[in-house]
Amino acid sequence: MSNVDYEDYLRSWFTSVCDKLKNNGSLYMCGDWKCSSAMQRVIEEKLTIINRITWQREKGRGALKNWKNGMEDIWFAVKNPKDYYFDISSVMMKRKVIAPYKVDGKPKDWEESEKGNFRMTYPSNFWDDISIPFWSMPENTDHPTQKPEKLYAKIILASSKSGDFIFDPFLGSGTAAVVAHKLGRKYFGVEINHEYCCWAIKRLMNSDTDPSIQGYFDGVFWERNTLNDQKKSVKKRNKKDVQLLNFEELI
Fold this sequence. Notes:
Blueprint: H1 3-20, E1 26-31, H2 33-46, E2 48-56, E3 71-78, E4 93-96, E5 102-103, E6 106-107, E7 111-113, E8 116-121, E9 126-127, H3 149-159, E10 165-168, H4 175-182, E11 186-189, H5 194-207, E12 216-217, E13 220-222, H6 227-250
Parallel strand pairs: 2-9, 4-13, 10-11
Antiparallel strand pairs: 1-3, 2-3, 4-8, 5-6, 7-8, 12-13
């Protein structure tokens, strides 16, 4: 498909989506390098682009005569650049401190604890902490382009409040709806593939008993390969809960 044809395809549905967007609402659109420039042009016809996020998803097909495609662009746009919701405090990153720096013997801009040395950092527009859903992850389905729940969690937490509506016009296996449900948002979407719809329904049912989002724990986002640290955090918290319970029993 040529760039012209692809832009016409985008316009065939994008205008209708923008019409449904609240005046203070936000839109995120994801695509790889082949379609990203066309997306930018079409988005700018209706909305104001605030930023372009680059997601390093890593996994991708190798190429003998080209660089492996391991990244995608996520365009962040709004209807009104002077009035849109964005909560940076809800998407802070918890990173390990590799070279702890101290001033007068005290940690500078990082926390020293039994769990380890960590720093709370502001997230940038380069996301390298999110992997695609692998076969061993509970959220994984056979959908060919399934996005991670952690990715949607960042977007939803940053650009919506509890109880807000989340809409995905290409719902696929239901990730947007599942994450919205887990985070206390209302949701609706469109999907024409019946099998994908079944996967989405099953995931929504499972989310009632398992609201966890891999990589998002205790109100913060963790780096890749920190599951053991997250488990330590759970153990420490559970230990405190048990101690508190025992103390209350003594009273």
